[in-house]
């Protein structure tokens, strides 16, 4: 008896839950059909490259021999740039701001000083630079760092005014310390302030100039350990620069003046200059200006020297942009910049400070840009920047990432984008040209698309871990810019600023169709053309998409399931009478009580639009105000070029648009998708007395109230604007944000997902969150596949919509498209994020698409469109017995779960709870080289990949640290072949891979920063300077700063932190046999050259000795017969 009851209970459970035991058996059979090809060892997560402008830059350095540039940021990041395509990103673990950078010129090493008083030595001789040594100061704060050329002793200035010396080979402190109280005069009672400058005399390495913030400059003799000269000025010092002859130096001050000093004239400055100050006629001191933050003094062999400075503008220049001033001879050029100047460097022909500098360019680091100025051409033009540093030109609002694109796509975009390039750049090549490209074998095309706040869409070539802009599209040209501020505010009330910002993008790479959705509830559909056209009138559709749950009519009795009540494709659906299309540009109107109605947020331009080759507007769709309620922003979007359809949804419902016939096919709320099978008991909201629909008795209203919801869903409307009657108008919610907050998400996850009716509170909403076009089974138990649209909602429901398409060609443009909701596929916990379909062998079924053709070709007509080939997914004939074999599998992923559902039986084969403590931000079904998987990005930073066959986790890592979570959430993208990307900061794109194969090949794909280059020869001192002395004086720093002479430094002053390898290993760390051979060859050449120079010097000494002996012999012969008194 007991056994019988258990079996009876089990039988009942099988009937209610669609036979769980049968499902398990079916799942076993699916395993026999689909073979698992992806294993855990096929996945590995690593960051590949970072593109874009360094976020919040703070310092900069340049290696004039290697020709590479380093930029430090306030978050402790390092970005190194070589030739275009050679970039590298490094990060200090502490995250402290980088205050100074110093290259070991032509040594493949870099010294960085941070705001946390630590100094680090980086090895650049490997593709991924690493820290060799670190030194952490405990008692003093670092303010300035200086490393002389070809020296291993690093000078560190501190806030207390002291100078410490570090050996960069061992990264240990020397016992030699320059104390501030010994540097200044004994009679001075005030502290000189922090050290703001340190540099050695170009002609005498034993003389060190020290600049203090208070205005005191000291010339320090390293050997005698005392100050030779002191120079005092009554204004604070910001920077100091030497003349290459070492007899003069120049200081920049806080009052906007420059003072030039002779090293032996310590009383007054030799010359005082106020570059931007007004010179009074009575000889008085000029009016003070803004501080000159930095000055550089560069000489030329044949012309006047260059004085380059930042800042120093007059205080009366209010609102003027930041400027860089170039003073050359009698001319002064003021170059305005778009952003504040962080730092600048002058690029010179020689690395030696005691030679004529011959400057040829200036690198200017701005807060949001990098500018290189050509000093050799008149007018100082800028170089065209080849780096992808304009990602943030307007803030990025959304991204899309496509891998393995058609091979002809990138050349096509480049050909139209090359016409958009600006003119007036310098004709010279980009001066930062160091490093070598990688030798990777990854060759499939990759494209990144970024949408921006100003309505711009940019296409980027992302192939082979590089990034280059291809084409730029300005969507704001479609709309008129209102000159009346009040009118503009009225029309764009739903957004405070950036009314043209891009919110969502849908792109078909094969057909090159593009659809963008803006924050002002508008859609623009573009076609790609290589010919220029002029559009007289922009095609416009206005859609009313607003629903309010008032007194909701009950479905007819006996309605049964949604599948039975919904019309069939062959049934004739009554079509309401429609009015003609609206007069362009809008049918804006207000009701009698002044409530705004049928008003779009933006006004489409009414004048002819000239469209250059590239993406050209085909159709504009706008959501309008309804009875005083603004349209809700679009939350989901999908495009299918084979069907010629666009579908979009928001928190109120969805609309399907036929962009070939320029009509709205379907416009309804989410509630109507369920038909009479709505599983939720929705409570009506209280009616608004002041916002009653005004269309009930107006001309724009259709009297179709006799139709139940399940009947008018299939209505085909062949007009531009679709208005539903007031009685059918429903409204679920009015969200102010695109996505609900995290608490609201978590609360929604806790709702029951059972098949029983669930009550939804008044504030709950069911938004459309995902779409997927496919050719599959529209209903449970179907025997043939048909074009379908699957819809996912924020409550975790997946709904099917059948599409009845006319034949291709001319009939497609004349006959209507029938759209029929077909019931529910299933429910999951959390919002639906992604859907995909597989055949019975586990092969991914891509949506159908149309190949691109030239829409503006001469003589193009319906025959031209018929020639366009269409590639659709291969249809798998279903088995005669559905119990033995399924034909397709639907993969659905939500914020919490992933399911694999067999079709057409709609049995759940596998189900996996992805996360319980967090939620999924982005999920995609991606194709790898040997299989498919679900890739997920969680809000807690986890990245996971799941098998499609058993929902088993193949990869789970939590190492992805995201600082700007909102930015990463908005822009995170997975794509095929194990690639992904996101905006790691407002200005930078971080690309990652979760493919083991790509991780293994990454080392070869990365470029090399360090390349063996011979150091230029030192300047020739001349015969007489070499014979009688003069010229540059060298200093044996090893003897002076070494432990034998200077002793040991204080133990508690700084802590040494060794890196993973020493400096000895650094010089042999350059990767590749070619680099080793090149270094050996250069070493042999240098050795041979030095031996040759030694031979020449020996021969010269022999000749000089012979000459001296000859002169001595002649003198002896001349004087041997003379007496002593004859001399």
UniProtKB/TrEMBL annotation:
<dbReference type="InterPro" id="IPR000664">
    <property type="entry name" value="Lethal2_giant"/>
</dbReference>
<dbReference type="InterPro" id="IPR015943">
    <property type="entry name" value="WD40/YVTN_repeat-like_dom_sf"/>
</dbReference>
<dbReference type="GO" id="GO:0005886">
    <property type="term" value="C:plasma membrane"/>
</dbReference>
<dbReference type="InterPro" id="IPR001680">
    <property type="entry name" value="WD40_rpt"/>
</dbReference>
<dbReference type="GO" id="GO:0006887">
    <property type="term" value="P:exocytosis"/>
</dbReference>
<dbReference type="GO" id="GO:0005096">
    <property type="term" value="F:GTPase activator activity"/>
</dbReference>
<dbReference type="InterPro" id="IPR019775">
    <property type="entry name" value="WD40_repeat_CS"/>
</dbReference>
<dbReference type="InterPro" id="IPR042855">
    <property type="entry name" value="V_SNARE_CC"/>
</dbReference>
<keyword id="KW-0175">Coiled coil</keyword>
<dbReference type="InterPro" id="IPR036322">
    <property type="entry name" value="WD40_repeat_dom_sf"/>
</dbReference>
<comment type="similarity">
    <text>Belongs to the WD repeat L(2)GL family.</text>
</comment>
<keyword id="KW-0472">Membrane</keyword>
<keyword id="KW-0963">Cytoplasm</keyword>
<dbReference type="Pfam" id="PF08366">
    <property type="entry name" value="LLGL"/>
</dbReference>
<feature type="region of interest" description="Disordered">
    <location>
        <begin position="676"/>
        <end position="701"/>
    </location>
</feature>
<dbReference type="Pfam" id="PF00400">
    <property type="entry name" value="WD40"/>
</dbReference>
<keyword id="KW-1003">Cell membrane</keyword>
<dbReference type="GO" id="GO:0045159">
    <property type="term" value="F:myosin II binding"/>
</dbReference>
<keyword id="KW-0677">Repeat</keyword>
<feature type="region of interest" description="Disordered">
    <location>
        <begin position="551"/>
        <end position="599"/>
    </location>
</feature>
<keyword id="KW-0268">Exocytosis</keyword>
<dbReference type="GO" id="GO:0031201">
    <property type="term" value="C:SNARE complex"/>
</dbReference>
<feature type="domain" description="V-SNARE coiled-coil homology">
    <location>
        <begin position="1062"/>
        <end position="1122"/>
    </location>
</feature>
<feature type="repeat" description="WD">
    <location>
        <begin position="230"/>
        <end position="264"/>
    </location>
</feature>
<dbReference type="GO" id="GO:0015031">
    <property type="term" value="P:protein transport"/>
</dbReference>
<dbReference type="GO" id="GO:0006893">
    <property type="term" value="P:Golgi to plasma membrane transport"/>
</dbReference>
<dbReference type="InterPro" id="IPR013577">
    <property type="entry name" value="LLGL2"/>
</dbReference>
<protein>
    <recommendedName>
        <fullName>Syntaxin-binding protein 5-like</fullName>
    </recommendedName>
</protein>
<keyword id="KW-0853">WD repeat</keyword>
<keyword id="KW-0813">Transport</keyword>
<feature type="compositionally biased region" description="Low complexity">
    <location>
        <begin position="573"/>
        <end position="592"/>
    </location>
</feature>
<dbReference type="GO" id="GO:0019905">
    <property type="term" value="F:syntaxin binding"/>
</dbReference>
<feature type="region of interest" description="Disordered">
    <location>
        <begin position="862"/>
        <end position="881"/>
    </location>
</feature>
<keyword id="KW-0653">Protein transport</keyword>
């Amino acid at each position: 008896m007991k056994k019988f009851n258990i079996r009876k209970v089990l039988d009942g459970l099988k009937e209610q839950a669609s036979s769980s035991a049968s499902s398990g058996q079916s799942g076993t059979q699916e395993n026999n059909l689909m073979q698992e090809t992806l294993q855990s060892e096929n996945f590995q997560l690593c960051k590949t490259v970072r593109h874009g402008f360094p976020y919040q830059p703070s310092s900069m350095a340049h290696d004039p021999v290697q020709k590479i540039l380093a930029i430090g940021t306030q978050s402790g990041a390092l970005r190194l740039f070589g030739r275009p395509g050679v970039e590298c990103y490094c990060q200090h673990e502490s995250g402290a701001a980088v205050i100074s950078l110093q290259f070991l010129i032509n040594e493949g090493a870099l010294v960085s000083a941070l705001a946390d008083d630590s100094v680090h030595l980086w090895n650049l001789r490997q593709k991924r630079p690493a820290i060799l040594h670190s030194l952490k100061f405990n008692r003093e704060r670092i303010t300035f760092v200086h490393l002389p050329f070809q020296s291993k002793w690093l000078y560190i200035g501190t806030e207390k005014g002291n100078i410490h010396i570090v050996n960069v080979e061992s990264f240990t402190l020397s016992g030699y310390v320059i104390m501030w109280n010994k540097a200044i005069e004994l009679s001075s009672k005030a502290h000189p302030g922090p050290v703001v400058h340190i540099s050695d005399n170009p002609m005498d390495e034993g003389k060190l100039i020290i600049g203090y913030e208070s205005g005191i400059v000291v010339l320090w003799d390293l050997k005698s350990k005392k100050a030779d000269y002191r120079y005092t000025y009554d204004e604070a010092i910001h920077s100091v620069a030497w003349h290459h002859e070492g007899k003069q130096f120049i200081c920049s001050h806080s009052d906007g003046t420059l003072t030039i000093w002779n090293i032996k004239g310590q009383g007054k400055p030799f010359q005082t200059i106020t570059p931007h100050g007004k010179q009074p006629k009575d000889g008085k001191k000029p009016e003070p200006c803004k501080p000159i933050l930095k000055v550089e003094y560069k000489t030329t062999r044949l012309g006047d020297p260059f004085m380059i400075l930042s800042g120093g503008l007059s205080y009366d220049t209010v609102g003027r942009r930041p400027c860089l001033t170039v003073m050359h001879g009698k001319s002064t050029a003021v170059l305005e910049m778009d952003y504040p100047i962080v730092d600048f460097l002058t690029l010179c022909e020689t690395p030696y400070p005691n030679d004529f500098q011959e400057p040829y360019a200036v690198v200017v680091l701005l807060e949001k840009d990098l500018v290189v100025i050509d000093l050799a051409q008149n007018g100082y033009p800028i170089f065209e920047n080849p780096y992808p540093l304009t990602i943030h030109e307007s803030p990025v609002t959304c991204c899309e990432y496509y891998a393995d694109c058609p091979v002809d796509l990138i050349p096509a975009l480049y050909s139209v984008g090359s016409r958009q390039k600006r003119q007036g750049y310098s004709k010279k090549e980009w001066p930062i040209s160091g490093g070598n490209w990688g030798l990777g074998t990854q060759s499939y095309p990759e494209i990144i698309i970024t949408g921006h706040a100003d309505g711009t869409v940019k296409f980027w070539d992302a192939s082979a871990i590089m990034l280059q802009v291809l084409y730029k599209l300005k969507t704001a040209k479609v709309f008129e810019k209102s000159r009346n501020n009040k009118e503009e505010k009225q029309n764009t009330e739903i957004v405070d600023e950036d009314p043209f910002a891009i919110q969502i993008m849908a792109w078909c790479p094969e057909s090159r169709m593009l659809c963008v959705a803006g924050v002002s509830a508008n859609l623009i559909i573009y076609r790609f053309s290589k010919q220029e056209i002029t559009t007289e009138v922009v095609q416009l559709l206005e859609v009313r998409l607003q629903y309010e749950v008032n007194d909701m009519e009950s479905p007819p009795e006996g309605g049964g399931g949604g599948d039975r009540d919904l019309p069939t494709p062959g049934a004739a659906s009554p079509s309401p009478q429609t009015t003609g299309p609206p007069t362009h540009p809008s049918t804006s109107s207000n009701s009698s009580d002044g409530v705004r109605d049928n008003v779009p947020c933006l006004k489409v331009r009414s004048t002819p639009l000239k469209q250059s080759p590239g993406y050209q507007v085909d159709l504009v769709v706008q959501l309008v105000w309804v009875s005083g309620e603004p349209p809700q922003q679009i939350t989901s979007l999908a495009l299918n070029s084979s069907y010629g359809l666009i579908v979009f949804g928001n928190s109120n419902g969805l609309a399907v648009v036929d962009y070939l016939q320029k009509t709205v096919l379907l416009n309804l709320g989410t509630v109507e998708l369920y038909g009479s099978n709505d599983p939720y008991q929705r409570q009506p909201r209280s009616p608004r007395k002041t916002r009653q629909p005004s269309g009930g008795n107006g001309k724009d209203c259709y009297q179709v109230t006799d139709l139940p919801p399940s009947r008018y869903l299939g209505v085909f409307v062949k007009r531009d604007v679709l208005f539903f009657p007031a009685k059918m108008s429903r409204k679920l919610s009015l969200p102010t944000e695109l996505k609900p907050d995290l608490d609201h998400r978590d609360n929604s996850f806790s709702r029951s997902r059972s098949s029983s009716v669930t009550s939804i509170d008044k504030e709950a909403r069911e938004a459309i969150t995902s779409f997927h076009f496919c050719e599959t089974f529209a209903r449970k138990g179907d025997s043939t596949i048909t074009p379908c649209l699957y819809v996912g909602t924020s409550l975790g429901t997946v709904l099917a919509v059948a599409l009845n398409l006319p034949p291709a060609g001319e009939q497609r443009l004349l006959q209507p498209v029938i759209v029929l909701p077909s019931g529910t596929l299933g429910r999951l916990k959390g919002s639906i994020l992604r859907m995909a379909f597989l055949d019975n062998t586990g092969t991914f079924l891509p949506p159908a698409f149309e190949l691109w053709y030239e829409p503006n070709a001469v003589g193009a007509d319906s025959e031209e469109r018929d020639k366009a080939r269409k590639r659709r997914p291969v249809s798998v004939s279903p088995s005669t017995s559905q119990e033995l074999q399924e034909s397709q599998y639907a993969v659905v992923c939500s914020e919490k779960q992933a399911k694999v559902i067999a079709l057409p039986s709609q049995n759940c084969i596998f189900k996996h709870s992805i996360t319980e403590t967090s939620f999924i931000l982005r999920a995609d079904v991606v194709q790898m080289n040997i299989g498919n998987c679900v890739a997920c990005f969680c809000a807690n930073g986890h990245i996971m990949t799941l098998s499609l066959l058993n929902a088993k986790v193949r990869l789970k890592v939590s190492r992805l640290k995201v600082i700007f979570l909102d930015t990463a959430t908005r822009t995170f993208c997975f794509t095929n072949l194990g690639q992904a990307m996101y905006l790691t900061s407002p200005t930078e794109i971080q690309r990652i891979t979760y493919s083991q194969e790509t991780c293994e090949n990454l080392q070869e794909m990365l470029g090399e920063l360090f390349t063996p280059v011979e150091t230029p020869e030192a300047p020739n001192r001349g015969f007489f300077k070499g014979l009688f002395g003069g010229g540059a004086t060298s200093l044996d720093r090893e003897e002076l700063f070494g432990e034998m002479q200077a002793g040991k430094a204080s133990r508690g002053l700084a802590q040494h932190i060794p890196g993973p390898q020493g400096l000895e290993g650094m010089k042999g760390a350059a990767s590749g046999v070619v680099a080793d051979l090149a270094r050996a060859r250069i070493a042999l050449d240098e050795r041979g050259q030095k031996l040759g120079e030694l031979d020449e010097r020996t021969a010269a000494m022999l000749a000089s000795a012979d000459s001296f002996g000859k002169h001595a012999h002649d003198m002896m012969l001349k004087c041997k017969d003379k007496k002593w008194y004859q001399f």
